[in-house]
Amino acid sequence: QAYNTIRSLAYDYQKKHGKEAPSGSPTAQANALYYYRQAIRYDDEVAKAKYMQMYLDGGGKRSRIREGINRAKPLEPLPVNLRYKFRESLSAAEKETLKKANEWYVDTYKK
């Protein structure tokens, strides 16, 4: 929950400061990478193999998987130049939520 809360706050902060979130329909390749990340999250070996193959069949490259996983970082929705100000705008409780979101991300995707 902490992860989703922080992502939501980051998107709201971005809008508040005149930056629009990327829009558009995800491609089949992007969807395959998303579901691959979900398979990692749930430690589902069968799904990991399936979505990895779909990603590769759609033109994805193994060398770019890390980039996709990095895009899942809690503060990734924010442009780099807004991240410090965003963190400074958080309440003490929200900063704790950010800490938990980062821990969840590392435990889930970087193991």
Short note summarizing the structure:
It contains six helices and no strands. It has 111 residues and is mostly helical. The longest helix has 18 residues, at 92-109.
Can you put this structure into words, describing what you see?
The chain has 111 residues and is mostly helical. It is built from 6 helices and no strands. The protein has helices at residues 2-16, 28-41, 45-57, 65-70, 80-89, 92-109. The longest helix is centred in the C-terminal third of the chain and has 18 residues, at 92-109. The radius of gyration is 15 Å and the shape is globular. The protein starts with a helix and ends with a helix. The model has no long low-confidence stretch (mean pLDDT 90).
Regions with little confidence, pLDDT below 50 for 5+ residues: none
Name the helicity range.
55-70%
Helix tally equals 6
- Main sheet, how many strands, which sense, barrel? none
Give the ordered list of helices and strands. Answer: HHHHHH
Structural class based on helices, strands and sheet pairing = mainly alpha
State mean pLDDT (0 to 100 scale). Answer: 90
Question: Can you lay out the helices and strands and say which pair or pack?
Answer:
Layout: H1 2-16, H2 28-41, H3 45-57, H4 65-70, H5 80-89, H6 92-109
Helix pairs in contact: 1-6, 2-3
Summary keywords:
single chain, 111 residues, mainly alpha, 6 helices, 68% helix
